[in-house]
Design brief:
This protein is of the alpha+beta class. 15% of the residues lie in helices and 19% in strands. Strand 9 and strand 10 form a beta hairpin. Residues 1-158, 166-198 and 212-220 have low confidence and may be disordered.
Length: 226
Amino acid sequence: MRYNGVWITPEPKITGLKDGSSSVQLRSETVEKLAQWKNRLFTYPPEDLSFRSLSPGIGVELSADMVPKAKLMDFMNYGPFMFPTRIIISQRAADFLLGYKGVEQELVPVRLYNQKEEVPGKFYFWIVRSLRPELLDMEYSIIRSGTPGLGFQYHQVKDMAEYQQLIRNESNTSFIRTKMKEVVTPPAFMKIQGDWLFVTKKFWQDYQQTDLTGLEITKNELELVE
C-alpha cells in the first residue's frame, strides 16, 4: 500500500511526549533506518519535534518494532489503512508541529468531561482560533471530539457569515457547541485516546483565560492531566 505522506527529518532528534502509554520516543537512528527501509525522501528541514499517531491515509509511517519498549497500544491501528505496528502522521500535522516554536511546540494532555452528552454520536463542536489557523489553511475551524481513538476532526466554515451564524455569544468566539451537520475531514493535529485530549500549551493557556459565560461548554469540562 502506498501512502501520500512525508517523512520528517531525523536530525537533530525526534522526541515523544512523556504523558504515559500513548507516547513514544524515537531515536534519530531509528528514523534513519525507517527512511532507508522505505527509501523515502525527506521533505522538511531538521527540527526537534514531538508527534503522535493521528489519521489514516496520509503522513509519516513509523514502525513500532523498531522502537525500544514500544507497545502496540502506543500506535493507533486503523485496519486496512495501515499495518498494526505502524502509525501515520498526516502531512498537515507535520506542518502544524513544524510551525511551532518554543512553548507553542509543546503538547499537554487534558481530560474531556462530556457529562452533558447523553446521546451517542452527538459531539461537541468548538470554534478554535488559537491554534495557528494559518497552519490549518483556514481562518476559523470547527473542531469536534470523535470516537475514542480516532482523534479530532475539523471543518472550515465557508465565510464570516456562516461563522457568525454559529456564534451564540460574539464576545466568546473560541468555543461553541452546535449541531453536527458539517462534513469533516480526517484529524490533522490532535489525538484523543479515550477521554484524553492533547492540546498545545498555548491552547490551554488561552482556554484558561477565555470567559465562557453563556456558552454550553463550561470550563470544568476540560481539565489538565498532571
